[in-house]
Structures are given as structure tokens and as C-alpha cells.
Design brief:
Length: about 200
């Protein structure tokens, strides 16, 4: 059962739409070790195809938002073993936005309001937040629950340095309206076809 913890900020209610015992996995989809080391100054400790996992153990409401206790399996660890316990602070106010793997919902509203207090290196597009640094660009996209589904680093020529993607297959809410539109068109088309077929049968 989903547990939502709601906080009202400036007439907007922000929620945490993940729940205890939820589990998420991410995979390294692409990595360029040479570019990575050149830009960040150290060898990456992950390879293409590596997975990492987080399981939510507890969610507590605190003064500035929520404290989420997670069990962590880092890249190159065995998921059959016990993970390590870590704590994530998720702020309930866009003013305190942190680039975390969980953020409050509604995602677009939260990111848009957060952008007002961030520097010019940030931009927001739907459920994505993009940060431009001197040597690279990092783009993070969240699903409708506020869970990070893509973290991508590219160089100035838009070549991928590192891309990590979620394996939990949730459709970002930015695409929901488009998908519903296609479904509606399909239903209308079926009704029209059936109606025409009926008219043909009657005329016969």
C-alpha cells in the first residue's frame, strides 16, 4: 500500500510518493572511461552493465522534509548479500532542492519552483533538471513518483561520458498525456470502424 506524506508549501502540497519496502535498480547503460578520467580526475569504479540497488527501509517526517533510510547495494556488489544502511534527507521545500535520487511530487512543479533559487547553470524541462558545468553537462530525469530514472553526463559536444538508467520501467508523467491521447484516438478509430461496418451490413 502506498503511503504519501504531504507537506503544504505556498499553497502547493508536496508529497513523497515512494513507500517503505519499495526497491529500485539502476544500470550503467553507457560509459567512456577515458573521458570520465580526463574530466573528473580519477578512474571510474564502474563498467557498462553494472547495477546498483536501493531498498527503502523507513520514511520519517522531519522538520525540513523527510529522512529516508535505505539499504544500498553499490555497483559491483552482490545483491544476495546484505546492503549497507544509508540515510537520505529529502527537503519538502523547492528552496532547499538537492540533486537526490528521490524528490517530492508533483515533480515538474517542484523542479520549476526550485529553479527560481538555483544558479544560471541550471535549467528545467518537464521532469528533467540540467546543470551545465565548464567541462560537462549533467541531466537528471525523474518519474512521476519523484524517483531518478536517468542520470546522464555529456561533454560539450553532447558525447556521453556516463549514463545510468532505472530498470523499474515507470513511465514519466510528462509522457502520460501523450500516451492517453493515442489510446483515445485508437478507441475512436475502433468505434468508427465498427459503426461503418454496421452501416454496411444494414445496407446489404
Amino acid at each position: 500500500m502506498l503511503t504519501c506524506f504531504a507537506v503544504n508549501v505556498n499553497a502547493v502540497t508536496y508529497d513523497i510518493d515512494v513507500d517503505e519496502d519499495d526497491s529500485f535498480e539502476w544500470e550503467v547503460k553507457e560509459i567512456d572511461p577515458v573521458k570520465f578520467e580526463k574530466i573528473f580526475g580519477y578512474e571510474p569504479k564502474l563498467s557498462k552493465g553494472d547495477d546498483t540497488k536501493r531498498t527503502i527501509k523507513r520514511i520519517d517526517v522531519v522538520d525540513l522534509g523527510w529522512k529516508i533510510t535505505v539499504e544500498v547495494w553499490d555497483f559491483k556488489t552482490d545483491f544476495d548479500d546484505n546492503g549497507t544502511i544509508s540515510y537520505l534527507d529529502v527537503p519538502d521545500s523547492p528552496v532547499d532542492f538537492d540533486e537526490n535520487i528521490f524528490i517530492p511530487t508533483p515533480v515538474n512543479d517542484f523542479l520549476t519552483n526550485a529553479k527560481e533559487d538555483l544558479g544560471s547553470e541550471y535549467e528545467v524541462s518537464g521532469q528533467r533538471i540540467i546543470r551545465t558545468e565548464s567541462e560537462y553537462i549533467v541531466e537528471k530525469e525523474y518519474d512521476s513518483r519523484g524517483v531518478l530514472i536517468t542520470e546522464k553526463y555529456t561533454d560539450k559536444d553532447e558525447r556521453i561520458i556516463l549514463e545510468i538508467v532505472g530498470k523499474f520501467g515507470v513511465i514519466p508523467s510528462a509522457n502520460v498525456e501523450l500516451i492517453l491521447g493515442f489510446i483515445a484516438l485508437a478507441v475512436v478509430a475502433i468505434v468508427i470502424v465498427k459503426f461503418r461496418a454496421k452501416k454496411i451490413l444494414i445496407s446489404d
